[in-house]
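dumping this here before i forget
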Amino acid sequence: MVLIHGFLENLSMWDEIADELSKTHQVIRIDLPGFGRSESIEETHSMELFAACVHQVLLELKIDKFNLVGHSMGGYVSLALLGICSDKIEHICLFHSTANADSEEKKSGRDRAIKTLKDKQNVYLKTAIPFLFPQQFQEGCKVQIQKMIEEAKDLNPNGISAALKGMQQRKDANQILKDFSAKKTYIAGALDPLLNIDALRQEALNNGANFLEIEQAGHMSHWENPKIAIEAIQKSLCR
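structure:
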């Protein structure tokens, strides 16, 4: 099981999920460049660059076949891996993620984020990270939110900007996912403030993928409702 974290996260986001999955699978978690303990390496971290880094780790570990779960930005990286080694991927799971490219509105938002990050990193983090959680989960997840903020404060702002640029520039990946012949699954939160649940359901249908909905979760189900999130990932492996 290869687990790829999302934006402003690191491999620790998978702690509870990895503990459970490790009972049945070898679990591999990676800090993408610019996050966790991995240094930033380029001005723009494209999803293809991230995917190449993940692929290199798998080559060094001599991993031949694997299941792949990517959260949010990690889903974009997972889709980029289809262009590198789709023959080695037995199952791809988009965990609160999408194969769509950024809309023009989203691209503009990333431009504003890059500017705010450059001028006021702490202000950006204190705004952007709570926004990932629906209002009803912010109190219950305040420890995780503060953890994310504190960890992100230690990151090089160039690495954060590099990821924002990479997400902004990524291409639509629906066709490559549709053409992927192995198992594929979307896991989505009904209360996700970033991704519309009905649009994701239709996207999954269009791409010939399974769709699992977590009713009591938003974009961060691994913290909002970890037990159900783990069950959803386990269920996706069995379909």
